[in-house]
């Protein structure tokens, strides 16, 4: 089995140890780290495709994302020694205040992180000010704000309005998510986008940052 | 009664309370204590519309769920009061169903929950509901079969009243599955083996999407089947939540589900007494 095939096997099986070992093997044997990361990235994308096709479900996708993160954690110290960062961008993510639903948000966070974004997950029931403070603190590229209830969705608008009031709307891309979120709502409140699921969310985030 | 005719459940509770001023993010269960008269009015509306069975406003009143809302210490109050609220308006021929919803906690790798924690959680709630005198248990909106099993076991352990169990399926390219990947066959067989008195589906999908699901459930069981779909997907239009499906279309879909084998029918998110009235009218029981 070739190295990319082994990576694929590790990620699709959600095998954290195997994926860690493969990454370690690359480092120990002084192999091409970028090629290895590409192999892992292809594998996690395959996991995403399987999810979209109804072959994978939440547990499988979460396991794959965890295996991916384990591999990336091995590469991380070596990458950061180099000049160029592999991080695709910095993301602040959370579920809006008053809403404790966080399963979708957590999945998006895992997938973004697995794909190489630097993700700061604030959890659920997060006040607008916390989103903004964190985004400013880490100089985020993207703020992702989730709401499962139509009653709490209004918080997504408040976040954007607050960014405008503070004259920092242009500093961040704002992605919104949650079952009741529609394209129409996204346009109405002036968000930068929404996605049907975690896999599309990663694609959207990359598109927005022109990656 | 199930043998004689189609049994009519109620419809949504939370969205109606929101219309009455329940603040965003506040658990609807809180109003069992602080605004019992409004909760009772909603129950009354359903009985008047023709519901045979009305569910207690305890969807989020298990210990784990209340803890997430920082109301963990009031579990007994919430559940006992909820049963009283239905009993106050329940006609002689009506039934009180003790509603049990998901804990909001997930098993690994999604979360850090355990089966034991599920079992303790549901045992606690079911015991309070049983003591308060519910006529049956209605376990609903379960998206993980393992959690549903824990709830069924708890309900069976505390009481001899019937246990209805309803799973929330999504429609994927490969058919109906829970978000955790449990198939219809897996859910139906497992719940049946645990001795539930009715199995079925509620929430997540709208009435037109549930028609085929009911036929699929029928393939795997002879138990009475529950159908309790959403009234379409919620949309926020000018600050108001609108559900796409009308009561008339909803009732037509329910009629089709009854023809496909559903025996216990009602509405989930976005429905209201008008929906129940329409079903009652259309299936002319």
What can you tell me about this protein's structure?
The complex is a heterodimer of chains A (211) and B (285). By secondary structure, chain A is an alpha/beta fold. Chain A contains 9 helices and 4 strands, in the order ααααβαβαβαβαα. In chain A, strands 2-1-3-4 form a 4-stranded parallel beta sheet, with helices on both faces. An 8-stranded parallel beta sheet of chain B has the order 1-12-9-8-5-4-3-2. In chain B, strands 6-7 form a two-stranded antiparallel sheet. In chain B, strands 10-11 form a two-stranded antiparallel ribbon. Chain B has 11 helices and 12 strands. In chain B, helix 3 packs parallel to helix 11 and helix 10 crosses helix 11. Chain B has 285 residues and is α/β, with parallel strands linked by helices. In chain B, strand 3, helix 6 and strand 4 form a beta-alpha-beta unit. The chains are: A alpha/beta (211), B alpha/beta (285). Chains A and B meet through helix 4 of A and strand 10 of B.
Total number of strands of chain A:
4
Instruction: Determine the strand fraction of chain B and express it as a percent band.
Output: 15-25%
- The end-to-end span of chain B amounts to 12 Å
Largest beta sheet of chain B: what is the strand line-up? 1-12-9-8-5-4-3-2
**Uncertain residue segments of chain B:** none
Assembly status: heterodimer
By DSSP, the count of extended strands of chain B is 12
Order of helices and strands of chain B: EHHHEHHEHEHEEEHEHEEEHEH
Question: What is the strand content of chain A?
Answer: 5-15%
Mean pLDDT of chain A: 92
SSE layout:
The complex is a heterodimer of chains A (211) and B (285).
Chain A: H1 3-12, H2 16-28, H3 33-52, H4 58-81, E1 90-95, H5 103-115, E2 118-121, H6 128-138, E3 142-146, H7 154-165, E4 173-177, H8 183-189, H9 198-208
Helix pairs in contact in A: 1-2, 1-3, 2-4, 3-4, 4-5, 5-9, 6-7
Chain B: E1 7-8, H1 14-19, H2 31-34, H3 36-49, E2 53-55, H4 63-68, H5 75-89, E3 95-100, H6 115-132, E4 136-142, H7 145-158, E5 163-167, E6 170-172, E7 175-177, H8 184-193, E8 198-206, H9 207-220, E9 225-230, E10 234-237, E11 240-243, H10 247-259, E12 262-265, H11 273-283
Parallel strand pairs in B: 1-12, 2-3, 3-4, 4-5, 5-8, 8-9, 9-12
Antiparallel strand pairs in B: 6-7, 10-11
């Amino acid at each position: 089995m070739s190295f990319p095939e082994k990576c694929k096997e590790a990620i699709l099986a959600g095998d954290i140890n195997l994926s860690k070992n493969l990454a370690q093997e690359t480092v120990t044997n002084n192999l091409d780290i970028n090629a290895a990361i590409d192999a892992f990235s292809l594998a996690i994308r395959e996991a995403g495709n399987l999810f979209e096709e109804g072959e994978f479900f939440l547990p499988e996708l979460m396991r794959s994302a965890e295996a991916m993160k384990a591999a990336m954690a091995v590469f991380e110290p070596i990458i950061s020694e180099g000049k160029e960062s592999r991080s695709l961008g910095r993301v602040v993510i959370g579920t809006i205040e008053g809403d404790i639903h966080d399963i979708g948000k957590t999945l998006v966070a895992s997938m973004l992180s697995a794909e190489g974004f630097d993700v700061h997950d604030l959890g659920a029931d997060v006040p607008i000010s916390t989103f903004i403070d964190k985004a400013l603190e880490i100089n985020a590229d993207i703020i992702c704000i989730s709401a499962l209830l139509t009653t709490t969705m209004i918080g997504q608008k408040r976040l954007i309005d607050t960014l405008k009031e503070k004259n920092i709307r242009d500093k961040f891309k704002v992605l919104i998510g949650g079952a009741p979120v529609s394209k129409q709502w996204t346009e109405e409140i002036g968000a930068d986008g929404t996605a049907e699921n975690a896999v599309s969310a990663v694609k959207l985030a990359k598109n927005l940052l022109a990656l | 009664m199930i043998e004689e005719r189609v049994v009519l459940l109620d419809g949504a509770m939370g969205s109606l309370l929101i219309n009455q001023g329940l603040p965003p993010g506040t658990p609807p269960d809180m109003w069992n204590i602080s605004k019992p008269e409004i909760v009772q009015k909603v129950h009354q509306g359903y009985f008047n519309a023709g519901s045979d069975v009305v569910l207690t406003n305890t969807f989020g009143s298990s210990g784990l769920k209340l803890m997430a809302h920082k109301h963990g210490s009031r579990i007994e109050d919430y559940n006992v009061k909820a049963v009283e609220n239905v009993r106050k308006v329940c006609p002689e021929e009506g039934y009180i169903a003790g509603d049990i919803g998901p804990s909001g906690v997930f098993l690994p790798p999604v979360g850090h929950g355990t089966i034991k924690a599920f079992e303790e959680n549901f045992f606690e709630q079911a015991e309070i509901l049983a003591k308060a005198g519910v006529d049956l248990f209605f376990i609903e909106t379960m998206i993980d079969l393992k959690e549903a099993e824990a709830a069924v076991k708890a309900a069976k352990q505390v009481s001899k009243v019937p246990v209805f169990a309803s799973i929330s399926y999504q429609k994927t390219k490969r058919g109906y599955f829970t978000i955790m990947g449990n198939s219809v066959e897996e859910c139906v067989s497992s719940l049946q083996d645990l001795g539930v008195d009715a199995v079925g589906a509620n929430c997540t999908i709208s009435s037109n999407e549930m028609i085929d699901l009911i036929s699929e459930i029928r393939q795997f069981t002879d138990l009475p089947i529950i159908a309790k779909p959403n009234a379409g997907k919620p949309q926020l239009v000018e600050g108001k939540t609108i559900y796409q499906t009308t009561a008339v279309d909803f009732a037509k879909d329910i009629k089709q589900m009854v023809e496909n084998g559903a025996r216990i029918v009602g509405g989930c998110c976005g429905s209201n007494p008008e929906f129940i009235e329409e079903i009652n009218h259309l299936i002319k029981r």
